Amino acid sequence: MQNFQGVGVSPGRITGSVRQMPKPVGEPPSGEKLAEGISPEDAVVRLKAAAQAVHDELKARADTASGDGKAVLEATALMAKDTMLLKSAGKLINAGTSAERAIWEAGASVSEMLHNLGGYMAERATDVLDVRARIVAELRGVPAPGIPSSETPFILVAEDLAPADTATLNPAVVLALVTSGGGPQSHTAIIARSLGLPAVVAAHGVDGIADGSEVYVDGAAGFVSVEPTDEQRALATAWAETSATLAAFDGNGTTADGHLVPLLANVGGAKDAVAAAGLGAQGVGLFRTEFCFLERDTEPSVDEQAAAYKAVFDAFPGKKVVLRTLDAGADKPLPFLTDATEPNPALGVRGYRTDFTTPGVLERQLEAIARAASESEADVWVMAPMISTAAEAGRFASLCAAAGIQTPGVMVEVPSAALTAATVLREVGFASLGTNDLTQYAMAADRQLGPLADLNTPWQPAVLRLVQLTVEGAAQEGSGREGAAKPVGVCGEAAADPALAVVLTGLGVTTLSMTARSLAAVGTVLKTVTLEQAQELARLALSAPSATEARDWVRAKLPVLEELGL
To answer: Which residues pair with 17 in a beta bridge?
Structure first.
């Protein structure tokens, strides 16, 4: 029996057969010529047959898909038969280039041309590169890149998943995710939590598990075992039964003694908001507004933005909706706003800082938010990401006031904002802790890197101390209303961990925002502890010498987690 230990990022216990994500298709050697005895005519015929096979496979998958995944597959299938692409490759073949190298070079040329055209055509540039890789794979007789197609459910094992890999990820077929790379705050981890899939990341060696092997995955413990034991099969069966009891949240986040901790949802648009409302979310703690801007070459108009924002507000009439203003930069570059040549984008012009180099975009966004808020019944709060100083917080508050927005706030992601929370919060009405980036910056550890996964966890005592300092700063800088502290929420992925949610509550965090699928688990566990017990667990975590011990010590005091497989 082989066992692998990684980092658990999404709870669940399950058994199933492994399907390995095919390795990326390697570039054919530069200058590769037709093999001896292969005529250009035969090579062109072979290329067209491979392109047709790729088209047919993608079209078949599109016929069974829906929504965005269906659109992506259909567009990619059409590109597989693109006349310009195949003619360009044919010319190279006639000049003696191998079919594999010809389609690779033709794909690069067509992709560059489409990208330069901008707009919709630029969006197709990525499809061309995907298609050329698939055609090369077909010519070589190796698996195509991307998530494997299967009629039976399986556990997906990969080095890591790029955001684009998830376009066709069907949670009815993919039972769990296991990666050898990535970290607890990586895209794979966030995707798994949003889909409710058990997941383990940074499990070194899992890419060596043979296709078809049966494995047991424990997404809470970060454990993967080949050839499950009878005990592990029983645990998986029990999880399937238990998860049904966690299928609903009653819309009332509270501790056992009645201390209110509203549980909010993280959303990216109207579809997410409607789904979150249906799952009982008490509002929105993080509306990622950059989804209105991504995959565009130009800034969306105020009218476009206002319509998108109002659609989210309308899902939560009378409830709090917290928007994060545009968080472009780092892993979310925008051609009209960010500089792709920055040597260190994570420490560069991103979030609020883009207003330094491209003034006007933020003010137009605030205008759109104010307009949408005036036409809805939601209680709209607005916060800026990547605030580092009190001066920045004050300027953002002024911009909000000029736009007619009454409740400005800040994201606490930069350690300086946590360390000076009292002065920062003197300028605004609330703070929300983005624990993903706060952890990354506090530990100087890129959240996407598997080798740094042990550092990049919000269980780090140093990160918990920054949370505590932010709460203490909010208490020191009261709102003026009967001396009450200013609200401090958490909207990072830390809030989706039921054990960590208890610790955050004990530290004095006032609201928790998470992927909507985590609401029931967090709500269930919170109801098993009093506020005093949560405070004691927070002190325990803060006193731990390491993140591992902080997590283990707290979990040992919460037997309900083991009972529920969380």
So the answer is: 214
